Amino acid sequence: MSVVITKQSGERAPFSKESLRRSLINSGADKEDADRICDQIEQEIYNGISTKELYEKAFKLLKKIRSSIAARYSLKRALQRLGPDGFYFEKWVAKIFEVQGNDTVTSQTLIGKSSVSHEVDVVISNKETDIVCECKFRNDIDAKISVTTPMYFLSRFNDLKGKEFTFFNRPFKPVRGYLITNAFFTTDSIAFAECYHINLISWNYPEDHSIKRLTDRQGLYPVTCLTKLTKKEEQILLSKNCILVRELVKNPVLLDHFKFTEKRKAIILKEANELLSMTK
């Protein structure tokens, strides 16, 4: 009889040893270590085990091998710690576009053609394309965004599309809309968005441009990935607008606020540099 795991949403699914093995390898573990971890976890799991407990077991074992691998493996949970209201998730999304050469600003109110005001999470421009982005943060990382969300976003986008505003000291006319979540989209959401040309990004969609792929490829890891920081220390760095691990590596003086010993500081920066070195 196969073991069933329980997701945060309450949904139940069969445990897949191969999926676990693949996620470990994708995080940087070699095949031998991945097999060893999978074998150990397979002996310890029980029917109905939560995905959280399963993750914690794998995370703990990875951390013993190398903390930077565990840090990379923790990305989904690290994004969850950009909550609980998603304020820092919006900041992180803005960074995704900034590293690609765009200008960004978060939390803006725009008046549409209908004279209705719209809260826009991220305004994005690269002097050629002007974009408005809505972020849907979920504390339940297994959550699925239903089709009503892109429907609602489309009506808001159409009210803003083509209207001229001023951002970054130049005219700004929205021509593209993005809907981005740290969770998942339903198949209906994807079908609707494809039909009406709404750009979606979620944890696993689109396959080659998903949050997971973008982060690993460009090294966009949030500081909440780092295993050598406490949650309180993470929040302090976020409050200082240090959202990405690469920003901490570039400006290690940010760690001086904590009055760490040089040894502790070196340990944190070592993990951060190793994490960034694994980008692909």
How is this structure best summarized?
Helix content is 45%, strand content 19%.
Description:
The protein has 280 residues and is of the alpha/beta class. The protein contains 12 helices and 12 strands. A 5-stranded mixed beta sheet has the order 4-5-6-10-12, sandwiched between helices. α1 (17-26) crosses α2. The radius of gyration is 20 Å and the shape is globular. The two termini are 38 Å apart. 35% of the residues are buried. The model has no long low-confidence stretch (mean pLDDT 94).
Spatially, the strands of the biggest sheet line up as: 4-5-6-10-12
What is the terminal-to-terminal distance?
38 Å
Q: Into which percent range does the helicity of residues fall? A: 40-55%
Task: Give the integer mean of the pLDDT values.
Answer: 94
Could you give the count of β-strands?
Answer: 12
How are the elements arranged and paired?
Blueprint: E1 4-6, E2 12-14, H1 17-26, H2 31-44, E3 49-50, H3 51-65, H4 67-73, H5 75-80, H6 87-98, E4 103-111, E5 117-125, E6 130-136, E7 144-145, H7 148-160, E8 165-167, E9 170-172, E10 176-181, E11 184-185, H8 187-195, E12 199-201, H9 211-218, H10 231-239, H11 245-250, H12 262-277
Parallel strand pairs: 1-3, 6-10, 7-11, 10-12
Antiparallel strand pairs: 1-2, 4-5, 5-6, 8-9
Helix pairs in contact: 1-2, 2-3, 3-4, 4-12
